[in-house]
């Protein structure tokens, strides 16, 4: 990836790579609470058929995943494993936070044991609101993530600068 | 004390037998008992807690432990229209059964914390709830800072292990003879006992609980209706 590191990736090649990356997303499912039922409906059922979007919900470990879907209540006890497995994912990696609990703590905003949002531990790319969100909402979140990947400047991401998503 | 009240319904025959047999075995350690139409409660003295469990398991056939848990009878601090808990009043006024301090449930109670357990006989389909006073914990005037404590039931029921760990981490009730009171649900470095009524929820220090705004008077309830309008 010398071209990417030196920021000399030609634009057509960037578009080609981004198209490939956004169309083949291996998702690591992190179901923590009731949102996992809706995530299962979105990822596992023929009715919603997430694979038509190119999302493949079969990685056997975080090391093979392109993005992780955190769905459900993140507790302070669960936070260290989430951070650890996020760090095990290969770059480039993305995070979808699904549901009110993972977004901000949700109904457990005053709890003694719930982390007030998974974004306190790992960076989140797409927040899907709802309690729980319907599978269609999660699919829309995936489409938004795909748009983000398609418009990404890989060189900028490699340098660690802020990614600006157009539109 | 509740058992002597006239409105207490009579026990079912099985519960009556159980309580009578337990009282025979424990003597003065059985402090009080109470019945409802389908249930029975027994309060035992702290010294008789382990013996009560042993008698119930080995002689009364109550061999199935449903759960062990704790109760904090302190008035809920500021919720549901009940009298708010005031640390200053707590410090100046010795605790007791007085109004506004804490309530006691069925079969009574003499301390802020209680441990209760439910045992069942799976062949005769009858259950019994046992309760025990475990001391006042941080508000005990005689032993400030002392933890409420009671004998562990782990020697009787191996399944009591995790139940007592949970009661310890949530209420700070220490079980003497437990093989290892470690955190079960909470992270190992967690400080405090979160199900105690006086445990501070930091988020509520910043933002009051929004459930208060939903309190409305019932139709025909004139006093609360005026409160809402005012």
Please give the structural blueprint.
The complex is a heterodimer of chains A (167) and B (230).
Chain A: H1 2-5, H2 11-23, E1 25-31, H3 35-44, E2 55-56, E3 67-71, H4 79-88, E4 94-98, H5 99-104, E5 126-128, H6 135-150, H7 154-159
Parallel strand pairs in A: 1-2, 1-3, 3-4, 4-5
Helix pairs in contact in A: 2-6, 3-6
Chain B: H1 13-26, E1 30-35, E2 40-44, H2 49-58, E3 64-72, H3 87-92, E4 113-121, E5 126-133, E6 149-151, H4 160-171, E7 174-176, H5 202-206, H6 222-229
Parallel strand pairs in B: 2-5, 6-7
Antiparallel strand pairs in B: 1-2, 3-4, 4-5
Helix pairs in contact in B: 1-2
Mean pLDDT of chain B: 77
Record the strand order, biggest sheet of chain A.
2-1-3-4-5
Q: Report the portion of residues of chain A in β strands.
A: 5-15%
- CA distance, first residue to last residue of chain A: 28 Å
Query: Strand tally of chain A, please?
Result: 5
SSE string of chain B, helix = H, strand = E?
Answer: HEEHEHEEEHEHH
Task: Please report which band the strand proportion of chain B falls in: under 5%, 5-15%, 15-25%, 25-35%, 35-45% or over 45%.
Answer: 15-25%
Superfamily (CATH H level) name of chain B: NADH:ubiquinone oxidoreductase Nqo5 subunit
Tally of DSSP β-strands of chain B: 7
Into which percent range does the helicity of residues of chain A fall?
25-40%
What does the oligomeric state look like here?
heterodimer
* Class computed from helices, strands and strand pairing of chain A: alpha/beta
Q: Indicate the radius of gyration of chain B in whole angstroms.
A: 20 Å
Number of helices of chain B: 6
The CATH class of chain B, by name, is Alpha Beta
Overall pLDDT confidence of chain A: 87
Uncertain ranges of chain A: none
In this structure, how is the largest beta sheet of chain B organized?
Answer: 5 strands, mixed
Shape designation of chain B: globular
């Amino acid at each position: 990836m010398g071209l990417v590191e030196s920021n000399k990736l030609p634009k057509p090649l960037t578009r080609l790579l981004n198209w490939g990356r956004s169309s083949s997303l291996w998702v690591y499912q992190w179901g923590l609470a009731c949102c996992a039922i809706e995530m299962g409906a979105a990822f596992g059922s023929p009715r919603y058929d997430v694979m038509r979007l190119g999302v493949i919900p079969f990685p056997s470990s975080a090391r093979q995943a392109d993005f992780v879907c955190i769905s459900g209540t993140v507790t302070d006890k669960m936070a260290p494993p989430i951070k650890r497995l996020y760090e095990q994912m290969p770059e480039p990696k993305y995070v979808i936070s699904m549901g009110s609990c993972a977004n901000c703590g949700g109904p457990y905003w005053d709890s003694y044991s719930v982390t007030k949002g998974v974004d306190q531990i790992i960076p989140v790319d797409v927040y899907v609101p709802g309690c729980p969100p319907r599978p269609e909402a999660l699919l829309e979140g995936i489409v938004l993530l795909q748009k983000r990947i398609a418009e990404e400047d890989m060189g900028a991401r490699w340098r660690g600068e802020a990614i600006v998503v157009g539109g | 004390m509740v058992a002597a009240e006239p409105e207490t319904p009579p026990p079912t025959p099985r519960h009556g037998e159980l309580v009578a047999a337990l009282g025979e075995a424990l003597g003065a350690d059985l402090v009080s008992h109470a019945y409802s139409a389908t249930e029975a409660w027994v309060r035992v003295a702290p010294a008789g807690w382990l013996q009560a469990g042993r008698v119930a398991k080995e002689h009364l056939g109550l061999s199935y432990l449903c759960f062990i848990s704790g109760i904090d009878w302190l008035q809920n601090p500021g919720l549901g229209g009940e009298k708010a808990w005031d640390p200053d009043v707590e410090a100046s006024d010795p605790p007791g059964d007085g109004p506004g301090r804490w309530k006691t449930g069925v079969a009574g109670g003499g301390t802020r914390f209680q441990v209760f357990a439910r045992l069942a006989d799976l062949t005769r389909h009858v259950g019994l709830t046992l309760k025990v006073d475990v001391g006042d914990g941080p508000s005990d005037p005689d032993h400030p800072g002392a933890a409420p404590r009671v004998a562990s039931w782990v020697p009787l029921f191996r399944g009591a292990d995790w139940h007592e760990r949970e009661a310890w981490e949530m209420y700070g009730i220490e079980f003497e003879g437990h093989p290892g009171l470690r955190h079960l649900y909470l992270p190992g470095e967690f400080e405090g006992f979160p199900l105690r009524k006086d445990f501070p929820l930091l988020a509520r220090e910043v933002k009051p609980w929004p459930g208060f705004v939903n309190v409305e008077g019932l139709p025909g309830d004139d006093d609360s209706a005026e409160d809402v309008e005012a």
